[in-house]
Amino acid sequence: MRVGILATAAFLSVAATSEMTTGQFLAAMDKAESLGPAALMSSDVRDLRAESDRVLTLYRADIARQAKTGGPRHSCPPPKGEGKMKGEELKIYLTGLPAAKKKQPFRTALYDFMKQKYPCK
Q1: Who's near 47: CB < 8 A, 6+ residues apart?
Q2: Is residue 95 assigned to a domain?
Q3: 35-80 confidence digits (pLDDT tens)
Q4: In whole angstroms, what is the distance from residue 34 CA to residue 30 CA?
């Protein structure tokens, strides 16, 4: 019994660190929406938020690094806290992607979205 619990915990920790595809992210968004107010207590929502935070942290670090080196920038978002991205806006973008792009990492889709939303001029 104890071995089964440890194996399950190990599997869950590996799954939590693997990168979500765009399709998996969309499915998690849909599931969260279907839960209504109960979504706030859902582990699925915590996982969704953790993945969003992880990818946005990577994105911000990449943008900061590009700005620091003075080279070409991927995109030009407003400073942190000044621009607000609505979840519905992102969902519309992700839903409109072709099936092949939904198999790519969520990170790739978010970077593409940010490039479209905040192009450098």
Answers
A1: 16, 28
A2: yes
A3: 787 777 777 778 888 999 999 999 999 999 998 998 888 999 988 8
A4: 6
What is the C-alpha separation between 102 and 84, in angstroms, rounded?
A: 24
Query: Per the domain annotation, does 42 fall within a domain?
Result: yes
Residues in the chain: 121
Longest dimension (CA), the chain: 60
The pTM score is 0.76
Burial class of residue 12 (count of CB atoms within 10 Å of its CB; 0-12, 13-18, 19+) = exposed
Question: For residue 35, what are the domain limits?
Answer: 20-117
Spatial separation of the C-alpha atoms in residues 29 and 49, rounded to whole Å:
10
Domain count, the chain: 1
Q: In whole angstroms, give the CA distance from residue 20 to residue 106.
A: 6
Q: Is 8 within the bounds of a domain?
A: no
